[in-house]
Amino acid sequence: MLTWRREERIGGVHRIAIPLPDLGPAHVEVLFAGDAADPRPAWDVQDGVLEMDLGKLDSVLVRLSRRVDVSGAVPAQYRPVA
Amino acid sequence: MHPIAPAAERTTRLAGTRAWIDWQAPADAPVRIAELGVGRSSFAGGGEGEERCVALVGIETLGGGKVGTAGKRHVDGVAGQRLRYRSHRQSASGDVHRLEIEQADDEAGLSVRSIIEHRDGIDAFRFRHELTLDAAAKQPTPLAYISSFALAGLPWTSDARLWTAANPWSAEHRWRAAPLSGYGLHDSGMHRYGQRGTKNRIAIGSAGAWSSSEYLPMGALEYGEGERVLLWEVEHNGAWQFEIGDRVGGLYLSVAGPSDPEHQWHHYLGPGETFATVPVTVVLSDTGIEGAAAQATAHRRALRRPHQDHETLPVVFNDFMNCLMADPDTEKLLPLVEAAAAAGAEVFCIDAGWFDDDPGSEPGPGGVPGWWDSIGAWRESAKRFPGERGLAEVIDRIRDLGMVPGLWLEPECVGVHSPTADALPSAAFFHRDWRRVSEWGRHQLDFGNASARAFVDERIDELIARYGLGYLKFDYNIDAGIGTDLNSDSAGDGLLSHNRAYLVWLEKLLERHPGLTIENCAAGGSRTDQALLSRLPIQSLTDQQDHRLMPPIAAAAPLAVPPEQGAVWAYPQPEFTDAENTFTLASALLGRVHLSGRIDLLDPARAALVKRAMDVYKSYRHVLPTAIPRWPLGLPAWDDGLVCLALEAADGDW
């Protein structure tokens, strides 16, 4: 999934939320964000929403993987919040 | 064939995996679609009685008129109203199922064969019709309008919204959905006084040689949010039109290729001759516009000519955009070739200007550089590529570094200052009223003419053989207008003949050179249509030069272009910040990468960023040819500050 933020007049780093109601629990892997070795923090998909911190001119390519664990267990950070 | 017509009160169902069409063949009226739907969702119920129906094939002839007061609407043409059912049959070949319905007007000697196809697992139907005039007919039939798809009885409810996609140059794929009143169609209530409707219509179309320079040849009706969607697509590389109007309380939709009033098209169908309409595909969804996009994408993949490029998705470097801008030479190209190879490019395409001696950076009269109106001979410039080996020196270096060499051409255009303009016979070019068409310094070749085709074939075959080319970018930077009236029934018919001849010519070129990849470009996306996308594997989406304006184009494009075919410019620059270079690179990463920019001038850190982007792309590009598009924030508006595109892979990852 590719997200662009282009709000140069607003500026700053903002937390943005992407609704993903169809996805369910998913592992978020940053594939390309331009930072050296892409060291963005590990974001979560929680309650069907992915929240990310994006700069005023920013773009982030992530992989959202539904296969959260080879054992079938869902890691705590990806479990739906009751 | 079934020789006996189904009774009017009985419907016959053409059933796909989930989608279906119910059609009727009354004894006293032409065949019509009564209803169609997908799953439990139906697209019918608006309007009442016989008058709400429209013929399966709407036909108008010059001077033949319509039944009732249709005004400008393309409904109730007399020639179509006179058709009566004769027979039908269903057949299957592999996963393709076909229904053929024969109708005829015995008095006029006109028969019509309607061909409706669908594929297993895809909620789409493809329509086309073949009109044949009896060989014993005394005079030709002057065809003026033929619908490829026509349906009435669509509900006109308050939740109905029409999707259209304006497609302006460098701001392509501008989808919007609005109530029909937002397009000017209002319920005047006059059907309660015995009228069929308002006599008004919403008409969207394209006249001229660019099929998508104003609107994409698509549209959709959506009912509710994320519910029923009926999407249609004209599979034609020339003129087209669709219209929606009210009819006895419901809506009708008619979709067609060129017509007399809109496109100066008429065609004399002679005794024993057959005319085929342009194909139209109708997609049905019960999961909103995203569901329709998934089905349309699947249908496009099933329909297109197979090509290895669809699977391998090589990274293409092209020297044009925010790079050499049509001013290539050996000295400028060689460093770019090295940089492109280091970045991971797999194809290197030399864009415009390689054939012209004049400096490309200095626009001449009319704001165009010298190469613009000298195109058409397709021989390398010795001034740009000096030395004994000329252009081959650059081409060989591209190949030595493991990349496939490519060249830019505009095969349909000949500059007014090109020697080809005088070398070819006059009939090889578009004409209007005996004058050769000139548009912005170019003439338009008529590919219906054998001399034109033979000349371009000879030049392209020679270029491929001489340089070992594996990639050609076919551009088309002018709209040659309504058509040509030289050796044609009408200007619009001349354009249609050229459009169809161009498609056949492409197929023969690919048959002669099966490993060749051809990119479709028309000043970017001005010919984004399925006639070309089904034949050529890669589509240039835009000529947008500002990386900040690219996201809404790249994000919206998969509704019309499968992601493995849609090429987006990525043009990193030495003066860009990391954020800017990341931004321009990222924009191409969920489609096809058209890498450009002055990558030969990047410092090591910026060059490493480009290389990393290409490496990442190569790590997952194999999933793109089966992925379907999703828009978590909705389809992007032009000014959106936040834009998002997801591709749902076959394994469920996004």
From TrEMBL, chain A:
Top-level taxon of the source organism? Bacteria
Q: What is this protein called?
A: Uncharacterized protein
| Organism classification | Bacteria, Bacillati, Actinomycetota, Actinomycetes, Catenulisporales
TrEMBL record, chain B:
The protein in question is named: Alpha-galactosidase
Question: Which Gene3D superfamilies does the record associate with it?
Answer: Aldolase class I, alpha-galactosidase from lactobacil brevis
User: May I ask which residue range the UniProt record assigns to the signal sequence?
Assistant: none
Q: Which UniProt keywords apply?
A: Glycosidase, Hydrolase
Q: Which PANTHER family match?
A: ALPHA-GALACTOSIDASE C-RELATED, GLYCOSIDASE FAMILY 31
* BP term (GO), one: carbohydrate catabolic process
One Pfam family it belongs to = Melibiase
Q: Which GO terms describe its molecular function?
A: alpha-galactosidase activity
